[in-house]
Amino acid sequence: MTGQQLIISGVGGQGILFLTRILAETAISLGMPVMTSETHGMAQRGGVVISHLKAGEFSSPLVRPGRADGLIAMKAENVAIHRHFLRPGGWVVVNAKAAPAGLDGHPVHVIDADTLALELGNPQSLNLILIGYAVARFAASGDFFSPDQVIGTIERRLVEKGKLRDASLAALRLGMENAAG
Amino acid sequence: MSERMLLLGNEAMAHGLVEAGCNVVASYPGTPASEILSSVAQWRARYDLPMHVEWAVNEKVALEIAYAASQAGLRAATAMKQVGLNVASDPFMSAAYLGVKGGFLVISADDPGPHSSQTEQDSRLMAMGAKVPVLDPDSPEQARELVKVGFELSEAFEIPVMLRPTTRVCHANQDILPGPVAPSDRKALFEKNPARWAATPKFRHRLHLELEEKLAKIAAWEPTAPRLLNPAAPARRAIVASGVAAAHAREVLNDLGLRETLPLWQVVQPYPLHGDFVTTVLEQYDEILVLEETTGVMELQLADRYRVKGKRSGFVPEVGELSPELIEGLIASFAGIETPEAPAPAAEGGRRPTLCPGCPHRASFYAIKRAAPKGIFPSDIGCYTLGINLGGVDTVLCMGAAVSQACGFYHAHKIGGEVPDIVATIGDSTFFHAGIPPLIDAVVQDARFVLVILDNATTAMTGNQPTPALGWGAGGVPTATVNMEGLVRACGVKFCKVGRPGNLPAFTDLMKEAVAFARTDGLAVVIARQPCVVDRTFKGDRPPRRKVAISDACNGCRYCTTQFECPALVYDEEEKRVAIDTLICTDCGVCIDVCPRLAIEEVGQ
After folding, report:
1. Which residue from B155, B185, B442, B517 has the least number of CB within 10 angstroms?
2. How much is the ipTM here?
3. Residue A107 is inside which H or E element, if any?
4. For chain A, how many helices (H) and strands (E)?
5. What Cα–Cα distance (Å) separates residue B311 from each residue in B121, B239, B272, B317?
């Protein structure tokens, strides 16, 4: 995998910063330099939250419009707000019941992670379901982090938190299984 | 520590502080600076360092505590956001004249954008006004390095040094290899020198002369001199950039293929600008593009308005962040090349910020509106500023101003004889920070209004830092406590009652009682006490959970979604009625008492 510029988009409380951190630490474990940029404070309270992630030789923490390799949207409504960051052909992974309109020319991957998180009895696991789905979808192409690399990051990060680690890995695997189906 | 870690800019600066042997750090939380002190507390615990680390009651107090430690010879730092520096500006200006002994760093984090602030002000202008050198990092890694450089500069010239990161440095994460921690073995030793530390105006004149001499030398200090980042061919034009604008510019130059043709100078010390550098760029180049956030501080010092393109010349916008896409356009235009048009963002959309589901402030504002429907509602700085969505906030000026503005509205209306109900709101942390002096003024001047202290037992907006009432400080260490009710009564307030806003009927009655008291008898204080829903540090009891459902009595009138505005109440366009978003509902049950048709019901767990 070469340099990656990603936009991760959602609303306050959905666990965007944790998701970003998992991907960033995965990049570090692969020996890639990484920068991310996030918003805190007033902007965070129930409003739209965006996180920029750049792995590779970059110096600016922000992704420019038209440059992102991928957009991970934790809310369907955010696709319209942030799709201008995508480069031509850039992919979209979206938590939605159906594919949002207006994404011609972009590979779109849809997963209903809200329903899966509720079925799992763990609404907070939405972010991990989504990331599991994304890495499994791209597993063969080599365009993104691999499932094993992300599983490794979560295991390292939550090594001393038995229950939380198991619940996190369960959510991640649920997302991966849904990508296979 | 010997492996690369993903560190937030604020964590990186905190590590720089412990690497540099800093002994005292004091701060008041403010976005984007808040994580600096909490991270220092974590590093202190991890490395078992001899340090005093505290959340001070406000920024002025924080700066004065850290400054005294510097006067006693220790390395010390204070961290705040740009508007916090306004509060601390009094001691900051004076400390520049008196100078320091141990290295003294004032970290003031700016918020171009502004993402979470009242202003986009440039702390570097404050440094310039105070005549204090300022360092402007471009990344978390450079911010960490400049902490150490700042201490060396401070001690070399016995002067306070400002480190000025911006949101995109504070809240960027980067892989960083932290340096070794050097515990300080300095002992505090205050050497009396009243002519300096307690200087009278006559001596201050001499200190000002000394300060100017220091600044002239600092403008020639090699370690902070501007750096030419690309070995460019001789060129007619050059870019001078500081802060994150330099990081954006570096990447843009690479992408535009201009790295070998357009020289890029990075300035890490925008004030005082190095004298040789000013001479060099004005001699070598016909045109200079200056990229900096937020004000034209370097541009002011590169005084050639015909050849310098920047904010004052009108080439670079004076308002807002210098985003990388904006910088791309500026550099392309400066270099005379075309770039393909970048995709434009969709028209403004998405959700506006709002109080969290289950937030006790929502209930407080709802009750306030019921008790004083035609009132004036001065409010303050914090999460509860979002009470504006509910019509419960009419003014927001700066920390503590809710109370003094309520006084002002009262006295202003009283002159004409007709005084409306005035209900001011202020958070618990903000009350301790700047609400007490105006409360004293209100009592003494007999200003009649209701002050609601929204006591959610934390400083919520900045990430749940402690308040003086809680009994714990930075890093969770035990502290003494201050009793809020006792403090209010000691200020001379006769009516001071506590209520739980989540019990909406009882709290509304309490608000009505307070409003009636203020009309006839004088100042009334209501303490609305209920813990923040997202505060994981809260140890006490939480209100009972009341799971709710929407019954068939809902006719889709939308009173609850417009007047109560809980994000967990969602209007379903297809069903033409309201539904509960169970993914985010906190089971606070307050909405049961909001629906005029009684269509929101409590259901069994």
Report:
1. B185
2. 0.92
3. none
4. 6, 6
5. 14, 14, 19, 6
> B264 with B229: CB under 8 angstroms?
yes
pLDDT value of residue A42: 60
For B262, phi then psi, to 5°, come to: -120, 105
pTM of the model: 0.93
SS3 label, residue B542? coil
Chain B stretch 574-593, residues whose beta carbon is closer than 8 A to a beta carbon of chain A: 582-584
pLDDT in tens, A46-86: 778 899 999 999 999 999 999 999 999 999 999 999 999 99
What is the spatial distance between Cα B274 and Cα B525, in angstroms, rounded to a whole number? 54
Q: Which of B34, B97, B32, B91 is CA-nearest to residue B66?
A: B91
For residue B149, give the DSSP letter.
H
Q: Does residue A61 sit at the B interface (CB-CB below 8 Å)?
A: yes
* CA atoms of B350 and A49, how far apart (whole Å): 10
Provide the residue ranges of all domains of chain A, joining segments of one domain with +.
Answer: 4-180
Task: Give dist(CA B586, CA B530) in Å, integer.
Answer: 14
Helix (H, G, I), strand (E, B) or coil at B172: strand
Q: At what angle do helices A147-157 and A126-137 cross, to 10 degrees?
A: 150
Fold of A4-180: Pyruvate-ferredoxin Oxidoreductase; domain 3 (3.40.920)
Single-letter residue type at B189:
L
Q: Which two tokens stand for residue B396?
A: 């927001």
Q: State the sign of the Cα–Cα–Cα–Cα dihedral B136, B139, B144, B149.
A: negative
Question: Mean pLDDT of all residues in chain B?
Answer: 95
Measured between alpha carbons, how far is B110 from B597 in angstroms, rounded to an integer?
48
**Residue B34 near residue A42, CB atoms below 8 Å:** no
Q: How many CB atoms lie within 10 A of CB A16?
A: 22
Residue B228 near residue A40 (C-beta atoms within 8 A): no
CB B461, CB B490: distance < 8 Å: no
Q: How far apart are CA B153 and CA A57, in angstroms?
A: 31
Q: How far is CA B512 from the centre of its chain?
A: 34
Of A39, A78, A85, the CB nearest to B171: A39
pLDDT tens per residue across span A95-136: 999 999 889 999 999 999 999 999 998 888 999 999 999 999
* CA dist list (Å): B436 to B310, B361, B445, B466, B604: 43, 21, 14, 18, 44
- Amino acid letter, A76: A
Give bridge partners of residue A170 from the DSSP assignment.
none
- Chain B residue with CA closest to A80: the answer is B346
Identify each DSSP E strand in B432-562 by its residue range. 450-455, 495-499, 524-529, 548-550
